[in-house]
Every structure is written in structure tokens, then in C-alpha cells.
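anyone seen this seq b4? input:
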Amino acid sequence: MAWKIMIQGTMSNAGKSLLCAGLCRIFKQDGYKVAPFKSQNMALNSFITDKGLEMGRAQVVQAEAAGIEPEVSMNPILLKPTNDVGSQVIVNGEVLGNMSARDYFKYKKELIPDVMKAFHKLEENYDIIVIEGAGSPAEINLKENDIVNMGLAKMVDAPVLLVGDIDRGGVFAQLLGTLLLLEEDEKERVKGLIINKFRGDKTILDPGIEMLEEKGNVPVIGVTPYLHVEIEDEDSLTERFTSKKSGGLLDIAVIRTPRISNFTDFMALENIPEVSLRYVKNVSEFGTPDMIILPGTKNTMGDLKWIRESGLEACILKASATGTPIWGICGGYQMLGEVLSDPDKVEDGGMIHGMGLLPSETVFTGKKTRTRVNGTFAHVEGIFSELSNVAFEGYEIHMGETTYVEEVISKEHMSRIQDTVSGKISEDGISDGNVYGTYIHGVFDMEGVTDVIVKALAKKKGITLEKASGMDLKSFKEEQYDKLADGIRSHLDMERIYEIMKENVEEK
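predicted toks r here
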């Protein structure tokens, strides 16, 4: 029987995902076969496995930390919000359909067999399962038929560590309030408390910890510091959107739309020393960027309307007219075209004019493209013409098909790609002047691609960069996972965590 440990939090963004990734790395370092698990994830930042199935990125990161390939059994249910009251429901990597929050709340109990099947599959193949909860177990309005917090802990019989975020204030109230709202049998599952994101002198915290343990009757097994690690986020509460990197000689602006997805596409660019990459959500923040990126989105037509109404479209068109390079990824690529049509009401329905920066048109259909690809740039115009013949890899995840408009139907596409799932060879993307569009997420991840882009931008700006090179993203991630594990191991009582897992098995 696999050992299990579950990390639940007092709120969203308490640091559950990062702690789970750190524990996965620690257990791997200690010689165990370890896998992550989260029964239900809500995120727009998803991933496509090597089998062409879709899952939440948090469990992908945790799988990487564990040194294993991601698989959908690590995240059997993924909810991708399409608006404020509804989501696309993905089960075992495939689209089940769109549901309102109320309809899904009524339906989710039907998915328990899928959750348990996925979990048992992991149990058969791994020594330890690190389970992540969602939000808070004290959301009393959602406790009925819970399948992701204490409801899941009961189903898989897992001991729980409860995490509070001291950086956002009120951590003692967070932890004690959560314990107070748990049923007695649920509270018995909580074997330890973790105070997360601490900055300062821990001795000042000690009196509060003593009182917390006395009132909650649960031991504090660690106070983890605010760790400065570069690890991919999936949450809409990511600090990447508000962080300000100064000193970069090149300024890249990513348009922060309401339904932005897969913003991890830009991690490689973010980590180039001479680049300042920032997320822009209004005209006052726009400035005079050296390159503009329109990212992926879960609602292309809705976010295009938002860009138009916010005044950012006018800024983008003006910048393009002066030669500023524009990149569109996935939904951003669709927006750059001339027309977007949605006859089947996959999104908002009807037809909307695009920005008119690419000679393309998009038609949304109910079929979702999900696959991984290898590719090579072919026909690349403008400032980035030296990308021609440069290799890349990534994944596609989109509704809709984009083609050239009839007037230029014979024009060559920007790249040639091979579907690594089916083996099919096809074409992707369009470049027209200094405007570029592609469906490939991760297209900037390879060092050869970022090198060309950064050097071309520097040449256009008339500057020389000391450190123009990108990085080996895979090696960089490995370093960051080790750094995360070192930080967590030195501040958590790992001996006690092993005892908790062992005791849970011995009691059965």
C-alpha cells in the first residue's frame, strides 16, 4: 500500500502547490517513487501529455519535481473557467462539456469513480502519493459531496497537513478558524500545521506558535520561509502578473487579458537578464515596448472585446504601424486575424472582426485540438527572419481552426510541425511583416528561439547586450526544484512527516 500525505490550505494561494512540488522532490531525493495527485483542479494554465490529453499544470510541475512523466491520472478533473459562472469540464484529459457552477456542483459526485480509478492507478505504481487539496476545506457552503479536500481525504484515507499563509496576514486565525469549522472526524485527519511564506526572525513567532498548538491541539511541524524560486505557476493569483523586473534593456509587454491562459509560455523570456517582461492590463501601463505578446486565452472573442473596449487594441495597432513586433500565441494568434466566426456558439457565438494584422480567419468548432509537436520555422518575415530553420517544440490546445484568407491562400505558413502523438506532418502559423502568430504553446522555450528574438530586438534598438543568451530551461528547472526541496527540507520536520505516513498505513 502506497504511503500518502495530503496538503490542504486555509485559502487559495496559501502555497499548497509549491509545497507539494517540494515534497515530491524531497521524497525522490530520498529514493522513493513518488507521484502527485489532485482530484479536481481549476486553472486556465493547462498542459498536454505525450498521449495528447489535458491536465492541470500544477501536477505537471510536481511530476517534474518527482522526476516522472506527467499523466492525467494525476489530475483526473480539470475545470477551465469560460466566464465568471461556468467552466469547461475536462475528465481524464478529454472535454466532457461546458457547465455552469451550479450544474457542476450537482454533477460532480458522478465523477467519484473516475477520481478513485485514477488514484488507485497511482497507488499501484508508486511508493508515495503527495495529494493536493483545493481552496480551503472550511468552505462550508461547498462541503456537501466534496471530492477535493476532506471528502477526498476520507475516500483515499489520507492524513492531512494544513497550510496557512502568513504573508497575507492573520495566519493564526486562518489555521484555528479552519480547524474550528471542520467536523470532528475531519479534524482528526489533520496531523500537522504549516506556517508558510514567513519572512523575519522566527523567535518572534514562537509564542504565537505555542498558543496555536494549545488552542488547536495540533502540532506545528514547520515554518517555511518565503522561498525565491522560479517555478511555473498556474493560478490566476500568480505574482508574475504584478512583479516588476527592473534593469532590462529590452521591454516586452504581454497583454494581460481577463481569461489569460498558459502564461508559462513566457518563462524563458522572463529569465533572460537583459529582458524586462511585464503584464499590461490598461493603457496607462502600455508604454513603448520593444515587443508585444498577445497570450493564450480561454475566451478569445470575449477577451478581444475587452482589449478593444480597454483601449489597448488602439495601442497595439499604433505600435505595429511603427514596426514594433507583435506575437500572438493561440487565442492571441486568432485575435490578430481579420475575422473570427463562431457558428456553433463554442464561445460567444456570431462573428467579430479581428485586429486585421494577419491575413487570416478563424472558425470555432466543437472539436478541441490537443497534442504535442516538434517543429521547425520555415517562412518567417520581418525582424525575426533568422528564425527560419530554427527548431522548437511545444503543444497545441485550442478550439477553432485558423487559415489564410482567400486572397493569399497559397502563401507559405510560418512553420512545419509534426504531431508527436499521431506522427502527422502539417503547417502552423503565419508571419506578415513584423506580426507573428502560432498555435504552439512553449514556442519560446528553446534557447535557439529566444536567442534569435532577443538579438534581433537588440539590433533594432541599436544596443548591445552583455547577456543575450537564453537558458537551458530543463536544467534551470532542475536547479529550481532542488533549491525548493532544500528550502522546505530545512524548515519542515521531515522525520515527523515520514512517521505520519507510516503510522497511517500501520493503523489499517
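The radius of gyration is 24 Å. The first strand starts at residue 3 and ends at 9. kinda curious what u guys think
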